[in-house]
Amino acid sequence: MYLYNKKPIEEIITKETKIWTCTANACNCWVRDNFKSSDEPLCPICKSPMAAQTKELQVVDNPCSSF
Q: Mean pLDDT per segment of 10 residues, for the chain of length 67 residues?
């Protein structure tokens, strides 16, 4: 039985990313800019307007964003 995984640990690459956060006080939903569904998105949870912000996040590609 092995107690340790012998694979090297991959470094998590992060960068400053544009996100959209819900403006409702009771909701803490946010969406990455490249995953939003419209130019001025509504919150997918509570349907409130969302505001643009930035956040340091792990880099994730959205292959569907080019369609």
A: 68 91 95 89 95 92 64
Q: What is the pTM for the complete model shown?
A: 0.73
Distance CA 31, CA 38 (A): 11
Hey, what are 17's tokens? 């990313």
CA proximity to 65, closest of 37, 44, 43, 40: 37
Residue with tokens 């964003």: 65
- Strands (DSSP E) contained in 7-49 are 14-22, 30-32
Write out the two tokens for 40: 């001025």
Question: What values do phi and psi take at 15, rounded to 5?
Answer: -155, 160
